[in-house]
Amino acid sequence: MAEETSTTVVFDYSFLSYLTGALIMLVFVVAPIAAMSEHIYPSRLMVAVGIWAMKKRRVLPLFIRLLSVMSLLGMVLLLSTYWQSIHHQSLGRDDSHLELGGKKEADDVQLVTSTKTCPKSCPSQYTSAESLYVCCNRGRCSVTVIPDGNSSAPIIPLPVTTDDCAMSSMGWIAGSSRIGNGMSTYWHALGVAAVTGQPFRGHATMGGSTFMGYLPTQWDPPDGWRGDAEKAKAACHCARPQFAHECVGAWTEARGLIRDFVNDTLYRAGLAQRALADTLPDEVFVHQRCAWETLLLHNMYGPMSFSVFRDAVKSTTTRVTFIEGKAGGSWLCDKIRHSVQGYIRKYHPDVSFRVLLGEDNPESISMDFARLVYAPILVRGPSSFNLWAALANQGQVYSPPNPHTWGWTTTDLGSDWHWVTTARVLTRAIARDELNFLRPKENEPPEVNGIPWTDVFIERAMPWLQEDPQWFKHIMSSS
């Protein structure tokens, strides 16, 4: 029988908020009141809490006012943190379905739950491969797997034990500037809960303007669902769960839940409405991690070669929007973007372009994330930030395979996710092996054989990105 343990994610610093508020109340409320009591020796307590000023009558009114202000701040902090703990909406038992496999099509593995009278047999209209149905009536559930629509014999998945999935699901998020890596822990823990049949619990504070403070803190699996041992074994193997995007982990089994969580969160944060109001029905959004501090200095990130745009931009597309992290970035990244625009114009001369430069603050980062979630068509390069937005996206996603340094290149994420295997990502290793140069690091001279490395980049890397056969090699990637 499966061991039922809570799947918990704790992020931001709500515990510290409680502790800080409690200390403020202790120092500025409890201690002064005790000090003023005639039954306590005031001189000793004054020294302990640093309120020696109370001995002097002339500063007493000012000191009392200061205590009042600090007491009020402490109470506000405590009440605010408590409100946050009960603010987040729980998702789970009232949801219409839980999708396993991360896809949105009707032929995916689904858990269909109902609080009404359970029908005598599960719906027969679903006849695709491996459709899983859980019919619940007052806590009594039956499970049926219909392989290829030809068999109605009940096949109950084996319950999950700690041998199948014993991963730690504790995670921390310490600010929205690291939203991509931080949310890896959150979504992986949710996936673990889904495949193991455990309850998911999270704890969040607002954390400024970021939408992460609105993320749900609770999800309960459908009644009777005890997990799927086979899926748990396949999904619970990340070497570094804190960077779960580096493996095909449990998050791949929870795309339906990710969509529900993210859309609910963005609407309650007011970001969905703003993003949708500024998006055209056929608009293409582009996000890739290109910055001076990573360009040809990293083996996991880099600009995409241009064939990724070939099928993403349609004949009906009127606008292409580039979402870029911040103003004042690398001029080489600007040059790459201008070259992408020229490539697109060659096939779609009437399309217009828009560049939205974000800022390094929670509000701007959250808005960028929302724009990617609600993009009708999203073109994305390797990035944990845009990975989670793309998984929540309900439009069409186009992506090159990940570099092998990710630990995986492609995986099945649904028919709306298009891996463009002709495209590649320009990393430091590729520049070394195929373009015969390495960008000097910051503490090294900026030349390659006496030539500025930026000149070498323009001479060799720009044609590579345009997939010039003189430099570019087509490599079929496998997952």
Number of helices: 12
β-strand number:
16
Overall, the morphology is globular
For the sheet with most strands, the description reads: 6 strands, parallel
Q: Can you write the helix and strand succession as a string?
A: EHHHEEEEEHEEHHHEEHEHEHEEHEEH
Task: Provide structural commentary.
There is one protein chain. By secondary structure, the protein is an alpha/beta fold. Among the domains are: about 15-85, no CATH class; about 275-465, no CATH class. Helix content is about 35%, strand content about 15%. It has twelve helices and 16 strands. A six-stranded parallel beta sheet has the order 11-10-9-12-13-14, with helices on one face. The protein has a four-stranded mixed beta sheet with strand order 1-7-8-2, covered by helices on one side. A two-stranded antiparallel sheet has the order 3-4. The two termini are about 35 Å apart. The relative contact order is 0.11. Keywords: Membrane, Transmembrane, Transmembrane helix.
Task: Quickly describe the structure.
Keywords: Membrane, Transmembrane, Transmembrane helix. The protein has 479 residues and is of the alpha/beta class.
What would the keywords be for this entry?
12 helices, 34% helix, six-stranded parallel sheet, alpha/beta, 16 strands, four-stranded mixed sheet, 479 residues
